[in-house]
């Protein structure tokens, strides 16, 4: 009996366009960063080895530093306007993972504040971090229940 491998489902055209638009914005920004780096490091690389100082132009670096966040925000807002449902789902998922990462960061801070004389304390594993997130959600439910038992 022979079987053919199952192909992954193709992305929907709208989803492909969405990602292509975001990648295009990032690619433009990366290209601008590369050009700015070339303007700074090109003269340094071309300078004679015995030259003490090299004059470089940093205006393009400043331009990219100031315009980069705006370009990314524009791409993000266009993404939100075109695909509001997908963005809402992704934002909800990122809030959940953000809360879990914050809980792990707090645990790591607590471990590092103990100091070396307290002995080694293992950091939480990924599974333990997920359980910490569930405990935090349980605390929120309990607080709501105390305020309004019904």
Beta strand %? under 5%
User: What form results from the Cα inertia axes?
Assistant: flat
Radius of gyration: 25 Å
End-to-end distance, in Å? 60 Å
Largest sheet: none
The average pLDDT is 79
Number of helices: 4
Low-confidence stretches: none
- Per DSSP E runs of 2 or more residues, the count of β-strands stands at 0
What is the H/E order?
A: HHHH
Summarize the structure.
With 150 residues, this protein is mainly alpha-helical. The chain is built from four helices and no strands.
Architecture overview:
The chain is an all-alpha fold. The protein is 74% helix and 0% strand. The radius of gyration is 25 Å and the shape is flat.
Helices and strands in order, then pairings?
Blueprint: H1 13-46, H2 59-82, H3 84-114, H4 126-147
Helix pairs in contact: 1-2, 2-3, 3-4
Keywords:
about 150 residues, mainly alpha, 4 helices, flat
